[in-house]
Design a protein that fits this description.
alpha/beta; Rossmann fold; 2 domains; 4-stranded parallel sheet; 10 helices; 8 strands; binds zinc ion
Amino acid sequence: MKPKKFYISIIALLLISIVLTACSGNGRAPSKDDETLIVTSFYPMYIFTSNIAKGIEGVRVTNMTEPQTGCLHDYQLVPADLKTLEKADIFVINGAGMESFMDKVISQLPDLTVIEASKNMNLIQDEAGEDNPHAWVSVSGAIEEVQNIADALIKADPTNKEAYEKNSRMYIEKLENLKSKMVDALKDVKIRDIVTFHEAFPYFAQEFDLNIVSVVEREPGSEPSAGELAGIIRDIKEKGVKVLFAEPQYSPKAADSIALQTGAKVYILDPVVTGPEDASPDSYEKAMEKNLEVLIEALK
Ligand SMILES: [Zn+2]
């Protein structure tokens, strides 16, 4: 009987030690053994980070929000988001005020490593003096954000330094080519004055030397008031604006009604804030190539 008892105690001790090992550590539920889980806040951050972490064994990138969510200006965290973040090793956000829920994340998960893609960038300010967060909408901004994310990932996960460096270098090279192609194709367009929807395009306009005369809707989903609409129509008529750019994420209702009253034409520009569930790594480039085609047609 003695040997049997002895074995039972050994097994019990082993079980206890396994349980203790699993419970120790940093207090939050660890991601799968040896896996670095990077969670991104929304679609463009997911595309950039996926490129930087592409093909690296033991590194997984997942997006916190659905890819159709769009900008996170007024986004409220749901319990499922905090569950996702509890498992994360690193959280990649755009920053500059886009993720207004960060106070809650930091207070609930103080040990989470947060990477801010727009850190130290030269941000454009609106009339109220607030930073415009849509820096990724210009290709130069995207390049800076990719570099920032890559640098911070290397710091947070130095084991994979070389892979992050190689991936980001290759991705940035593609983005540099895209930028040259766009700047080149747009340098001689005749029309420079445009009207856009929501404040997503100032960086884009700066890059291609376009002049945003008016912004129709400042908040996603909010229709302009009758007074605002009249002001926009007056601006468009006074400045002879010929083109309006709506966005695939917003209802074109206001744009259509302005177009009807001013004779300006409506086109669609994509600020790359939404995409399919299984977005391919080149989704940003593809969306920008499409934007380029639209601009060439609209501004000639
Ligand atoms: Zn936005």
